[in-house]
Design goal:
5 helices; 4 strands; alpha/beta
Length: 115
């Protein structure tokens, strides 16, 4: 298949977060919602957007190797053209309570390993 004819797939990591939801809303308005792959720790149930093509579960609070393994599987299965990382833990209280999980979310070394 001609690469120029292949539909573009956009993988948005951290899809349930504030920034990602606004990005997804904009992409849906632009008509590319069906090409979105949204990766999030908990699969959506109460999100404002429903026009997203696919959801996959990725948990950045797990170990670096577990995250890399999850993302490697997503990359192989979905073959995204564009990857946007919006995953983060921005709550200071949560970060102070579990600094290891906060580091994993905010410094996504597993994502770098998977790339």
């Amino acid at each position: 298949m001609d690469p120029l004819q292949t539909p573009m797939k956009i993988l948005i990591i951290g899809a349930t977060g504030y920034v990602a939801q606004h990005l997804i809303d904009s992409l849906v308005v632009d008509g590319v919602g069906s090409s979105l792959i949204s990766a999030c720790r908990t699969l959506p149930g109460k999100l404002a957007f429903t026009e997203v093509g696919k959801y996959v579960r990725v948990d950045f609070s797990q170990s670096r190797s577990d995250v890399a393994e999850q993302l490697t599987a997503v990359f192989a299965a979905e073959r995204p053209s564009i990857i946007v990382n919006c995953a983060a833990q921005s709550s200071l209280g949560v970060c102070e309570k579990d600094p290891t999980a906060a580091f994993c979310a905010n410094c996504p070394l597993g994502l770098l390993d998977a790339l």
